[in-house]
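To the wet lab folks,

You asked to see what we're planning to order before we commit. Fair enough. Below is the target structure as tokens, and below that is the sequence we designed to fit it. If anything looks off to you, flag it before the synthesis order goes out.
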């Protein structure tokens, strides 16, 4: 059963390896910015397009006090701008939680977008400190 899921993931990764697949960040950045305004779960501190990737520095305004709560809100945000498939990687740093996001289509009209979301601020620092810091997530 799991093999079918792995095959879909492999197909998505193979599509993303094609240079023509990357559709740039400007369109997805505009969509994400509009959703951030609607949701108010995050405050945008800064945003920019860096090559084919959109980068956002966000301050978390959501509910809860755990890394799970932060992930839930980021995954929900990404779901509002998603396409056929989404890959999200989360890394807890000393002062931020970084999410690398790939959103795209790997079947019809194959194209994709890359986002890097840095979630920062006093609340995030308390979440990181409360869960044992970045090193606790490396075990």
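Sequence we intend to order:
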């Amino acid at each position: 059963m799991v093999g079918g899921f792995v095959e879909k993931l492999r197909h998505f990764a193979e599509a993303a390896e094609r240079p023509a697949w990357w559709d740039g960040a400007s369109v997805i950045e505009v969509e994400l910015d509009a959703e951030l305004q609607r949701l108010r779960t995050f405050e945008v501190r800064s945003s920019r397009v860096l090559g084919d990737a959109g980068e956002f520095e966000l301050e978390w305004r959501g509910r809860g006090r755990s890394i799970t709560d932060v992930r839930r809100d980021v995954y929900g945000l990404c779901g509002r701008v998603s396409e056929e498939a989404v890959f999200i990687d989360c890394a807890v740093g000393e002062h931020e939680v970084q999410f690398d996001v790939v959103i795209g289509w790997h079947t019809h009209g194959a194209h994709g977008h890359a986002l890097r979301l840095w979630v920062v601020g006093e609340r995030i620092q308390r979440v990181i400190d409360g869960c044992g810091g970045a090193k606790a997530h490396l075990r």
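Structural context that might help your review: The two ends are 28 Å apart (CA to CA). Helices lie at 2-16, 26-39, 67-79, 122-130.

Thanks,
Computational group
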